[in-house]
Amino acid sequence: MFDGIIEWITSILSPVLTMPNSTLFVLAVAVSLNLITITTNRLFTDVNQLRNYEIEVRQHMNNLNAAKKRKDKQAIIKLERKEPRINRIQSIVAKQKMKTSLLLMFPFMAIFMSLNAIYGSSDPNFVAILPFEFPILLPKQLPFSTWYLICYFAVFSVFNRFFGVTFEMDEEPSKVKSQPKKIRKKKKRFR
């Protein structure tokens, strides 16, 4: 049954089975799957809250490491009291990230395995040619799986930064986004 599906998909994809179309098609697949991932992350997680949590955890770990280097026992004790909260935050972040990973894992694996089977059985079985060669790491002629992973991770970092899904660790956590603003009443001046 799976062979019949692969043959049917192969017949549909016949224009993009050879280079240079195959190179561009795999890049387009990587871009599409990245956009789906980013959209799903935006829909199912609170990106700003996760960013604030991760920054808070990072700051706590940096402060704890600095206190240990200085051998400041009082600061270490004070920071270790916050450990249960930091552990809860890390658990929340992991659950939020796991939601989208589990949701997308099986469809993405099916797409990857199908395309890998199609391009692995096509002649020639490479989809891209590098203009240079890494003798130990990469051959000059790249099979589908290698080219897809290069495209996916190259596009992934750029898109995550562009769409604001990446978590910047240099920022201060924003308390304004998670807490309501206090409104000051202005005093009326009489003249």
Helix coverage percent: 55-70%
Tally of helical segments:
7
Sheet-strand content, in percent, reads under 5%
Instruction: Output the helix-strand order.
Output: HHHHHEEHH
Please tag this protein with its features.
two-stranded antiparallel ribbon, 191 residues, elongated, 7 helices, 68% helix, mainly alpha
Summary of the model, kept short:
With 191 residues, the protein is mainly α. The chain has helices at 2-12, 21-44, 47-70, 73-81, 83-121, 144-162, 175-178; strands spanning 128-129, 141-142.
Topology:
Blueprint: H1 2-12, H2 21-44, H3 47-70, H4 73-81, H5 83-121, E1 128-129, E2 141-142, H6 144-162, H7 175-178
Antiparallel strand pairs: 1-2
Q: How would you describe this structure to a colleague?
A:
The chain has 191 residues and is mostly helical. 68% of the residues lie in helices and 2% in strands. It has helices at residues 2-12, 21-44, 47-70, 73-81, 83-121, 144-162, 175-178, and strands at 128-129, 141-142. Helix 2 (21-44) crosses helix 6 (144-162). The model is unreliable at 173-188 (pLDDT under 50).
